[in-house]
Design a protein that fits this description.
heterodimer; A: 166 residues; alpha+beta; Ubiquitin-like (UB roll); DNA polymerase, domain 1; five-stranded mixed sheet; 5 helices; globular; B: 788 residues; Aldehyde Oxidoreductase, domain 3; Aldehyde Oxidoreductase, domain 4; seven-stranded mixed sheet; 20 helices; 2Fe-2S_ferredoxin-type (chain A); iron-sulfur (chain A); iron (chain A); oxidoreductase (chain A); oxidoreductase activity (chain A)
Chain lengths: 166, 788
């Protein structure tokens, strides 16, 4: 079958899609966007997290046919050209990236969290990222990265952390 | 790769920043990784490539009566179905002992053993073809560790005639230690208190996030180019060449992006399979394991049963230790011999004991093969000896930390192997530091209102509001060797090239070190900046065009390949000064005081002697150096005596836990660590290692086990094999000590493994403190706490 959707704002067509293929397979193998990672293929690890119509989902659990006429956003769409999204920059700066395999999913999930909650508490961060497994970092530097990204985004908006909008 | 676009990380990558050693510049691969542009082995693509898949045994032990591949071959889109009969060369491989069939021959010895491989034009076609292969098995009873030591009764995992280098019966390897008077009657009589304990460690998985993958591309010269996620390119190749029937120069490996390793990529997995399919079909073949196959596709941490006796005087001085250790090696040898060597030689922990008798054995069974995992034999022992130290402290009425300090080894101490510790060994100091760290607030307990359930055992399951929750605190400390031991010729190769690019001096670093996430590439750039005084450093892809770097294991790469990069940079610097001497007539006394700083050659008084750009001109300086650590010795097999390890590394943990004693749920509240790293080459990366290792120790303590029943794996998925999430992992304050090891480059000490040892016993001790239970097995499950 043919699936027509948008990825990172660009109209996209995938041809010869077998009905059992996941969105993750189509993104990685047919659309040429391998940034979303396949680490478990059953929605346990979060490495393939992408936006589907603005909501984070595990791309491995979405059948390719389900994205017909819908909008998909991947890690490749977070940066604005050469300028990294504050979440991406914070992960690099804070040492939250080691092997990096979990990173794309964590970035999308964090990006979503900071859109919803501008000043998340540690407990909120942990809850929001609890579906994203990381085996290298022990999560300490990921916590640092999320706090750093939140602070930088607040600075950019000119808002003080005290006035929680989340 | 001859594909249309070469992934950016398979080209030279620029290392950002200006910092040398001791600072924390950004990773050269960091930007690529956060953009999704970093190509892991599973991301590679080649025109006309096929997908490879493996048929694996559903049985732990069976004879193969027949294999019928005809229905699989008949499926449209299938290009090849291969069994052992199609292998052009040797049918066996192995890290230390070549006892593992590339594809099963007449018999399968573990659940998940590869039997046949398929190449097809779509991964689903390949999977369907695998389902059509008909194998007629004659199922036999599996030999477990309890049966393995009585082969006359229960049988042999490998027929006696098949034994190659290994010992006898079902024993892969054994190592005995006789120190002082062992546990003789006189020694026992001197001990005023003796405590005995039996301990068990379950089978832990490395559970790296990026499953095994690679792309094999047939070359025009009849050779193969393999792009692969591995820990050791050259030893992969060494095992592959005899199977493929190709000389080393025709088997070229390039490191693709690696999604973590932790020991699980030390053995080869799909490397040979992909190459065999590529050779047979003449087409590029990619193999990517899914998570289930990954659980079957690599070795695990050895399950262990350990019996300890510790004897001490009434005032708490250890008199003797007796330890009997059996490690379940599974169906094939892998690195079991070296794991046994570690378990025996590190078996009493970081303590001074005048008498010890240790017997460590790994056995062949029909369980999944076990081999390298972070901590490598020292993890299991640390759970055993630290549990014993707590038991002894309780028996003596001493504080557990005080008992450890009383017996802590230090520089100058003699180990049970007879080796004198000739570098700092701050065991007591690490304990003191971790004990002195502030404790987390004792909030949320025994109160009914206003609690955030996310902070409590059970979390958002909302199973408690604090009632039934008891806090406990526990300590652990461990000792781990760094680098390859027991006389192994451990070396690493580095090439450093200094040249002028765009009017500036640029250094290129080329090694075969597997960057698996640890950040070695960042440290290489730092070393070169420090040694050569240049800002711009480029990291070449790791491949087999340069000499071996050894494995990214044994906490050794910063020491070994870092040492090689340092040596190569020194050679480059020497060649630069020599050029000045020859061409510019610099006198020897001037040359002796020269340094490279900020792109200039400067003298003792910091006066600029030459601009590096002028001196280099268009003639690069290019040096390749092999670096070795000082030699070690094999342990005597029956006494264990010998200078077996080159360096030791230590970490201490304090765990604070909340236990819901009614439901058996554990919340680790905080894990504090103190570790000596000799020299923090990159402090941010050091913290990353300590945090990550600590978390894997947490997993072993309360979550992680591959459940094997009569040889069958019951939980090969992330649904059923649980690793710590961000909710399971507590804050982890770290105190880093830097006492230089005079024998190591920059005084550094391998950092990656030590934190994996002591986190586990510290958590178990804390749970014991909260519950009063003995808890002799990890991982601890809720039923162990509730007795249900």
């Amino acid at each position: 079958m043919r699936v027509t959707f948008t990825v990172n704002g660009r109209p996209t067509e995938a041809d010869d899609v077998w009905e059992g293929e996941s969105l993750l397979y189509v993104l990685r193998e047919r659309v040429g966007l391998p940034g979303s990672k396949n680490a478990c293929e059953q929605g346990e690890c979060g490495s393939c997290t992408v936006y589907l119509d603005g909501a984070p989902v595990c791309a491995c659990l979405v059948a390719a046919g389900q994205v017909q006429d819908r909008a998909v956003g991947t890690v490749e769409g977070l940066a604005d050209g050469d300028t990294l999204d504050p979440v991406q920059q914070a992960f690099v700066d804070a040492g939250a990236v080691q092997c990096g395999f979990c990173t794309p999913g964590l970035l999308v999930q964090t990006h979503d969290l900071l859109n919803r909650a501008h000043h998340p508490s540690d407990a909120e961060i942990r809850e929001a990222l609890s579906g994203n497994l990381c085996r290298c970092t022990g999560y300490e530097k990921i916590m640092d990265a999320v706090r750093l990204a939140a602070a930088r985004k607040a600075d950019a908006r000119g808002t003080a952390p005290a006035g929680s909008e989340g | 790769m001859a594909g249309p676009t070469m992934p950016k990380n398979l080209l030279d990558v620029c290392a950002p920043g200006r910092d040398g050693i001791g600072a924390s510049p950004l990773r050269p691969d960091g930007i690529l990784k956060v953009r999704g542009d970093f190509a892991y082995a599973s991301d590679l693509w080649h025109e006309d490539m096929l997908w490879g898949t493996t048929l694996r045994s559903p049985h732990a032990r069976a004879r193969i009566r027949s294999v019928d591949v005809s229905a699989a071959l008949a499926l449209p889109g299938v290009y090849a179905v291969l069994t052992h009969e199609d292998i052009p060369g040797s049918k066996f491989y192995g890290l230390e002992i070549a006892d593992q069939p590339v594809l099963a021959i007449d018999e399968v010895r573990f659940h998940g053993e590869p039997v046949a491989i398929v190449a097809a034009d779509h991964p689903e076609t390949a999977r369907r073809a695998v389902d059509r292969i008909v194998v007629d098995y004659d199922v036999l009873p599996a030999i477990g560790p309890a049966q393995a030591l009585d082969p006359e009764r229960y049988g042999y995992v490998h027929a006696p005639a098949d034994y190659k280098a290994h010992a006898s019966g079902n024993v892969v390897h054994s190592q005995h230690i006789r120190h002082g008077d062992g546990d003789s009657a006189q020694v026992r009589a001197r001990a005023e208190v003796i405590v005995r304990g039996e301990y068990e460690v379950g089978m832990q998985d490395q559970a790296f996030l990026g499953p095994e993958s690679g792309l094999a591309v047939p070359a025009e010269d009849g050779g193969i180019d393999l792009y692969i996620a591995t820990q050791w390119l050259h030893v992969d190749r060494q095992q592959m060449c005899p199977v493929l029937g190709l000389p080393p120069e025709k088997v070229r490996l390039t490191l693709a992006g690696v999604g973590g390793a932790f020991g699980g990529r030390e053995d080869i997995s799909m490397q040979v399979h992909a190459c065999l399919l590529a050779q047979y079909t003449g087409k590029p073949v990619k193999i990517v394991y899914n998570r289930e196959e990954s659980f079957f596709g690599h070795v695990h941490r050895h399950p262990a049963t350990m019996v300890f006796e510790h004897g001490a005087t009434r005032d708490g001085r250890l008199v003797f230790v007796r330890a009997e250790i059996v490690l379940d090696g599974g169906a094939y040898a892998s690195s079991s011999p070296a794991v046994v060597g570690n378990a025996a030689s590190l078996g009493i922990g970081p303590y001074v004991v005048p008498n010890a008798l240790i017997d460590a054995t790994a056995v062949y069974t029909n369980n999944p093969p076990c081999g390298a995992m972070r901590g490598f034999g020292a993890v299991q022992m640390c759970f055993g000896y630290e549990s014993q130290m707590d038991r002894l402290a309780a028996e003596l009425g001493l504080d557990p930390v005080e008992l450890r300090r009383l017996n802590a080894m230090e520089q100058g101490s003699v180990l049970p192997t007879g080796q004198v510790v000739d570098a700092p060994a701050p065991v007591a100091e690490l304990l003191r530091r971790v004990e002195a760290m502030p404790l987390p607030a004792a909030e949320h307990r025994h109160t009914g209102d206003g609690v955030d359930v996310r902070e409590l055992p059970g979390g958002v399951s909302n199973s408690t509001h604090g009632e039934g929750v008891v806090r406990g605190i526990g300590y652990g400390v461990g000792i781990k060797n760094v680098g390859f031991s027991e006389g192994f010729d451990d070396y690493s190769t580095a090439r450093v090239r200094l040249e002028v690019v765009g009017g500036a001096p640029v250094a290129l670093v080329h090694t075969a070190m597997a960057e698996v996430g640890q950040g070695g590439v960042t440290v290489h750039a730092q070393i070169v900046r420090t040694e050569l005084g240049v800002d711009l450093v480029t990291i070449a892809p790791a491949d087999t065009r340069v000499g071996s770097a050894g494995s990214t294991s044994a906490s050794r790469q910063t020491y070994m390949t870092g040492g090689a990069v340092k040596s190569a940079a020194e050679a480059v610097r020497g060649a630069v000064f020599e050029r000045g001497r020859l061409r510019r007539g610099w006198p020897p006394d001037l040359v002796a005081g020269l340094r490279l700083v900020g792109g200039k050659v400067v003298d003792r008084a910091d006066a600029v002697v030459a601009d590096l750009v002028d001196l280099l001109g268009d003639e690069p300086v290019d040096e390749t150096v092999e670096f070795r650590h000082r030699p070690t010795q094999a342990f005597d097999r029956t006494t264990g005596q010998g200078f077996g390890h080159v360096q030791y590394t230590f970490c201490a943990h304090r765990a604070v836990v909340d236990v819901d004693v009614e439901l058996g749920l554990v919340k680790v509240v905080e894990l504090a660590a103190a570790q000596d790293v000799g020299k923090a080459m990159n402090p941010l990366a050091v913290l990353g290692q300590i945090h990550g290792g600590t978390t894997q120790g947490l997993g072993l303590a309360v979550m992680e086990e591959i459940v094997v029943t009569e040889g069958r794996v019951g939980n090969p998925s992330f649904t059923d094999y649980l690793i710590p999430t961000i909710l399971d992992t507590p804050p982890m304050p770290v105190d880093v000590l830097e006492l230089a090891d005079p024998h190591a480059p920059y005084g550094l000490r391998g950092a990656g493994e030590a934190p994996t040892l002591s986190a586990t016993p510290a958590i178990v001790a804390a749970i014991r403190a909260a519950t009063g239970l003995a808890l002799n097995r990890v991982p601890i499950r809720p039923e162990h706490l509730t007795g249900t």
